[in-house]
Amino acid sequence: MFSPVDDNADLSRRAEEMGKLLQRLFPLCRSLTGNGVRRTLRILQEKLPTLKISEVASGARAFDWTVPDEWNVEYARLTDPNGCVVADFAENNLHLVGYSEPVNRFLPLDALQAHLHSRPDLPDAIPYVTSYYQKNWGFCLSHRTRERLEAGMYHAEIRTTLQQGHMTYGELHIPGELKKEILLSTYICHPSLANDNLSGPVVAVELAKWLLSRPRRYSYRIVFVPETIGSIVYLSRHLDVLKQNVVAGFVLTCLGDERAYSYLPSRLGDTLADEVALHVLLNHAPDFIRYSYLERGSDERQYCSPGVDLPVCSVMRSKYNTFPEYHTSLDDTAFVTEDGLRGGFAVLRKCIEALEFNKVYRSPVLCEVQMGRRNLYPAVSRVGGYDGKVRDMQNLLAYADGESTLLKIAEKIGIDIFTCAGIAMELEKAGVLFEASRDN
Ligand code: ZN
């Protein structure tokens, strides 16, 4: 049986594990495809031995999209007219524009400028730039470095391969009592970037370890895909089973900083995932930031698209595209902290616990239950009414009609679902409440 966990020592241990895993994954050069993604998934598989890794060939079609060629990097360096290094992939993988094609050229600064990327508003940051679907090459560097470049001939040498290969993704099934599933989806395609991206997979791994360690009502499907193309490919191969079984899902992204909690709804905002996310956030982090689906940007774009319509929303810490460090070298292992990850993990775990508790109950008793006969009253009744807990018990019984979910009842009677679940267990023990129906 699931029980609400608020174990500080356990959470601290998990936060430390997540921090260590993030540090280990951080240096790898991930992209939509390539060996950095494979290495990342193999490291995740060390933590989750039943993680299944699949490959899809370049050129494979998925709905309106085609799996791109596989990209791998051997070497990339830009040197100035004096032979000094301006940008080196070996020093920071953000220096190279993602999916750069190979070049070996000497060119003057004027011509080079078209291939350079920097952020005048963040002069010390190296921006993260990609060119997946248009053949190009380029270097990213701090604006401060760029401004110091002198006229003359520069040497751009990029040794990459961009050819027929594979796109790699991982998935983990954790069976529960029910065939109905909770979907957790995260992505593994950003290079050395911490909040957007690595916080998502490390929280997903920790949630999986936690789920595997306890009994579960629902089954769980956890997918690690390159963003956009990966979720499109995954959906194109599993749409029927997902539509049949998924009752709620979350995109796990941006879960590691300490500044905020955020929520981005599903397309219509009316799914069970939205209901759970809002209930947990309102009770756990009431000053969370509420975004609109118009501000979407991750794989909910695919999961919520018309016709797919899976019940998927996002619960985040600081949302992508809103924090200044976003998609730059400043989104690093200092910006993401163990405390940040701990909060990200805790809020998602509460969402999952709320779903596990969200049963439908009924009482076998017609009319009001006689509480006193079953020792459900406090020994001494006070003047002016019952204490809060008795009132909550009676309220719960009043709405346990065989149709209302516990989540709906919790909202109605104004207490959180975790307290409600505790009360429901006591009432079950006293024989005045039972689970009315089960999903299968
Ligand atoms: Zn991103």
Molecular structure report:
With 440 residues, the chain is α/β, with parallel strands linked by helices. It has twelve helices and 19 strands. It has an eight-stranded mixed β-sheet, with helices on both faces. A four-stranded antiparallel β-sheet has the order 5-4-9-6. The longest helix has 20 residues, at 338-357. The protein is elongated and about 95 Å long. The mean pLDDT is 95. Zinc ion is lined by residues 190, 196-197, 320, 327.
Q: Quaternary arrangement of the chains shown? A: single chain
Query: How would you state the average pLDDT, rounded?
Result: 95
Number of strands: 19
Number of helices: 12
Q: Which percent band covers the strand fraction?
A: 15-25%
Q: Give the % helix.
A: 25-40%
Extract low-pLDDT stretches: none
Q: Provide the gyration radius in Å.
A: 25 Å
If strands are numbered along the chain, what order do they take across the biggest sheet? 1-10-12-11-13-16-14-15
What is the global morphology? elongated
Largest sheet: 8 strands, mixed
What compounds sit in this structure? zinc ion
Distance between the termini: 17 Å
Strand pairing plus helix content: what structural class?
Answer: alpha/beta
